[in-house]
From TrEMBL:
Keywords: Membrane, Transmembrane, Transmembrane helix
Stored InterPro entries: DUF3526 (IPR021913)
Transmembrane helix found in the keyword field: yes
Species name: Hymenobacter mucosus
Membrane-spanning residues: 21-40, 136-156, 183-207, 213-235, 242-263, 430-452
Name of the protein in question: ABC-2 type transport system permease protein
Length: 460
C-alpha cells in the first residue's frame, strides 16, 4: 500500500507538470459549465414561454368578450377561442434536454379537428436541429471519453518508450501495482471532474434531492469505468503510444458515431413509420369533403358515436355550428388508425433502439439520462395523449351548448377545462440502462483481465 501511494503521488506530480493535460481538464470543465448554463437557460426559456400562455388565453377571452358582449353562440366561441395544452419540463431536463429541443412544449388548440393542431409546430432552424443542443449529458457522454483517452493512451507505453519501465520493474514492485496506481489516479481526476460538474449542475438546476441523484451519479461512474476499461484493454496489447491513441479514437468513433448511425438506419428500416403528411392530407380531404356531403349523412354518422344528442332538432339551415364541428370530429376519426399507427411506430422504434443500445454504451447512457430527466420519446407521446384527452374534454364541454342550443355567457369562460402536463422520469428504462452499463463494464474489464493474464508486461 505504501508503494501504491508513492506511485500515486508520482502520477500527481507528472500530471501537474503536463500542462497540456491540465489545460485539457480545464477545457472540459469549461465546456461542462457551458453545457449546464445552456441547458438551464433553455429550460428557463421554455418555462417562461409556458408561463405566458395563460396570459395569451386571457387576452383571447377579453377580445371575445368585446366581440361578443352578450350571450353568444357557442359555435362562434369554439371557433375563435384558443387554449393551450402545456408540457412542463422536470427540473432534471436542464441537465439532459433530450427531445425537448425538437418536440413542441405546448399545443395550441381550438374546437376544430385535432390532428392538424396536434402536429403543428413553430418553425425551427434546421441547422440548429441538426447540430443539437449542448447540455451536461452531452459533455458526459460524448466529450468525457475523449479526456479519458487523452489521459490513458500512453498509460505504460510512454514509460516503455522512455526506458523508465525497465528501471521501474527492476524494483520489488508488481506490474499490477504500477498499472493500478496509474489507472487509479486518472480515475480520481476524471470522476472528480464529472462529479463536480454533476453537483454544480444539480445545484444550478435546483433539482429535487431524490433517488435520481444517486441514479445520475451511478450512470456517470459506470460510463467512466467503461471507458477506462477500454483503455485498459488497449494498454494490455502493449503497443506504442501512437497506435494506442489511434485505436482508442477508433473505438470512440465506432461506439459514439458509427454504431449509433448504423443502428438508427437499421431501426428505421426494420420499423417503418407511416408518413405524417399522408395522415394530414387524408384528414383535410375528409374535412373538406364534409361540406359537400348531405347533412343528414354526416349527422347520422356523428349520432352513431354520440347517441345522447340524437334528439336534437333536424338541421334545415345552410350552415349550423353543430354540423360543422361534427364533420371536423369525423375527420379526426377517419385518420385515427393512421395516427395510432404513427405513434405506435415511433414507440416501436424507440423500444427496438432501447433493446439494441447494449451495442453502444454511448446510446445507452444518453437514453438513460433522457429517461431520468423525462425528456425521451415515451414522455412526449404521453404528452400527446394527454393533449388528445384535453381536446376531448373541450368537445364534451362545448357539445351541450351546441346541441342543446344553450347560449354561451361570459361566466362560462371560467368553467372551460384547462390542461397541464409535467414530465416524469421513465424509471424502467433508467433501471435497464444501469444494468446494461454494468454488463458493459463487466465485459470490458473481463476482457482486460484475460489480456493482462495472457500478455504479461514485457519491459522491452
Amino acid at each position: 500500500m505504501h508503494l501504491f501511494r508513492i506511485l500515486f503521488f508520482y502520477e500527481w506530480r507528472h500530471f501537474r507538470a503536463a500542462r497540456g493535460l491540465v489545460l485539457l481538464c480545464c477545457l472540459l470543465l469549461a465546456t461542462g459549465l457551458y453545457g449546464i448554463y445552456y441547458g438551464t437557460t433553455e429550460i428557463e426559456r421554455q418555462r417562461q414561454h409556458l408561463a405566458n400562455l395563460p396570459e395569451l388565453t386571457r387576452r383571447n377571452v377579453d377580445e371575445l368578450k368585446v366581440k361578443f358582449p352578450g350571450p353568444a353562440d357557442a359555435g362562434d366561441i369554439g371557433y375563435y377561442h384558443s387554449t393551450f395544452a402545456m408540457h412542463h419540463p422536470d427540473r432534471w431536463a436542464a441537465l439532459s434536454l433530450g427531445l425537448r429541443d425538437v418536440n413542441p412544449s405546448y399545443v395550441k388548440l381550438r374546437l376544430l379537428g385535432l390532428q392538424n393542431q396536434l402536429y403543428a409546430t413553430d418553425n425551427t432552424n434546421p441547422m440548429k436541429v441538426l447540430s443539437g443542443n449542448f447540455d451536461l449529458a452531452f459533455v458526459l457522454v460524448y466529450l468525457l471519453p475523449l479526456l479519458i483517452i487523452a489521459l490513458c493512451f500512453n498509460l505504460l507505453s510512454s514509460e516503455r518508450e522512455e526506458g523508465i519501465l525497465v528501471v521501474l520493474l527492476a524494483q520489488p514492485v508488481r506490474p499490477a501495482v504500477v498499472v493500478g496506481a496509474k489507472l487509479a489516479f486518472r480515475l480520481v481526476v476524471v470522476l472528480g471532474l464529472a462529479g463536480l460538474l454533476s453537483v454544480v449542475g444539480m445545484l444550478w438546476a435546483q433539482v429535487p434531492l431524490d433517488g435520481r441523484v444517486i441514479m445520475w451519479l451511478s450512470l456517470t461512474v459506470l460510463y467512466c469505468l467503461f471507458w477506462f476499461g477500454v483503455s485498459l484493454v488497449v494498454t494490455a496489447l502493449q503497443r506504442p503510444s501512437a497506435v494506442n491513441a489511434v485505436a482508442l479514437l477508433g473505438v470512440w468513433l465506432l461506439l459514439v458515431v458509427l454504431v449509433p448511425s448504423l443502428l438508427n438506419l437499421s431501426v428505421a428500416t426494420a420499423r417503418p413509420v407511416p408518413q405524417g403528411i399522408a395522415l394530414t392530407i387524408k384528414q383535410r380531404e375528409e374535412i373538406h369533403g364534409g361540406w359537400d356531403r348531405p347533412k343528414t349523412e354526416t349527422m347520422n354518422r356523428f349520432f352513431a358515436l354520440y347517441p345522447q344528442w340524437r334528439d336534437t332538432a333536424t338541421i334545415r339551415e345552410r350552415f349550423v355550428w353543430r354540423w360543422y364541428y361534427a364533420f371536423q370530429h369525423l375527420g379526426d376519426l377517419a385518420v385515427a388508425p393512421q395516427a395510432a399507427a404513427y405513434a405506435h411506430g415511433l414507440q416501436q422504434r424507440y423500444d427496438l433502439v432501447e433493446q439494441l443500445n447494449l451495442l453502444s454504451p454511448a446510446i445507452n447512457a444518453q437514453t438513460s439520462f433522457n429517461a431520468l430527466a423525462g425528456t425521451d420519446l415515451p414522455t412526449h407521446l404521453q404528452f400527446q395523449r394527454s393533449a388528445t384527452r384535453f381536446h376531448d374534454s373541450l368537445r364534451a364541454f362545448y357539445y351541450p351548448f351546441l346541441f342543446g342550443k344553450v347560449e354561451f355567457t361570459h361566466a362560462d369562460y371560467a368553467r372551460e377545462p384547462t390542461h397541464s402536463f409535467t414530465s416524469q422520469p421513465e424509471l424502467p428504462t433508467l433501471y435497464r440502462g444501469l444494468v446494461k452499463l454494468l454488463l458493459s463494464v463487466a465485459a470490458v474489464y473481463g476482457l482486460g483481465a484475460v489480456l493482462w493474464r495472457v500478455r504479461p508486461i514485457i519491459p522491452r
